[in-house]
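Tutorial sheet, problem 5. The two components below are modelled jointly, 399 residues in total.
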Amino acid sequence: MTGEASKAQEIFQDTLREAAFLAANREPPADRYWFFREARWRCLDVVAHGVQPEQGASESTEVSPQAPEQIEQLEPEQLAIWISAAPEPQRSAIALYYLDEFNYREMMAMLGLKLNELARAIASGRRELQAWLNATVPAAAPE
Amino acid sequence: MKRLSRGLRILSDCAPIANAKAPDRRMRTAVSRAKRLEGFAAQQSFDRAVAKLVQATPVSPEIQEWFANEKMAEGAKRNWKKTAFHPAILAIGIALAVIAVVAGIKFDEQMHAFPGTATAKKLLNVAAMTRPSEFEPVQSEAGTLNDLFFMKYRLEHYDVPPEFSQQRTIGVRVFDDDEAGQVAQIGLAEKRMQLFLFPGRRDSKTGKAEDFQGWRYIQQEGWTGAVQARKGVLFMAAVRGTKKDLAPYLAKPQLR
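Model answer (structure tokens):
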């Protein structure tokens, strides 16, 4: 999210320090999502003060049945770069969704989104990813 | 082909990538309905392929090291024991328990209160402080003292009930109390018990004595009293001890 490992590490350490401080004051974080929420807000704060990517109109298209073959041709780093370039809260929503670790309620709690906002972020992210896939690794023509 | 309702469509957009992870019934319904629709299978294949690629994203050893002690950063889990022993909860619990006990004692006192309770309690204190030397020595049976009280002090109906009438006395005294009026105090040889006779409370409008039936117990600072009302006069037998010490006398009236 920050685009820099050193900044990410700093945020990670700040988050843990804050958790330790709260625990020392007998107010430990209520759940593990606290760490994600806290780290995300810190990341967004850092990003807001850094260089902003140019916001362009993203193309989108319906998910194609050939998408799995297209995705197989991608390198993980390419996908990571595409996700990190997405605008918030779409970026966080897609990242959490495809980590496949959390259900929709947990994602809502972590991102502070309503259900329809989360669904919109994931659905539009899916369509935009498909459009980017079509441009990056065009699907083989059906025989 | 049917379309999904807006609510189910929104849910199907965030459908779990692995079906087993559906967190609630509504999501399971949305997934099950969406499966009948064209396009959902493609969405699921797409999601599985992306998730697989995300899982394959290499994590640098440096970042792996950050999470070497991931358990350490887990949120504090509170079980019922931890919650119960939290200082604030504990303090509230103790306060509530004390309030409940005090309320219970007050309720019990009210249930057992009778006209003249306050005076009887005061006389229990007198019993605790009276020395045998303060009595005018009279060695007799307690039941015979009513004549003495009437003849010498003009105290009418100051009769010792049959339960205590055969007890041997060591002394007697009569004194005036601001609240109770004229009080007759009898010292007994047995268990250093003391008997009190004093005027019962009277209704302020009618002037009629407020009698009650049977024996009533009161307790104060290690002393126990058993009180009975007869003809506008209250009789109290007081002993250092508990109800158990007085109960045998009250159970079997001594017949003359």
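Marking note: Chain A has a mean pLDDT of 81. Full credit if you identified this.
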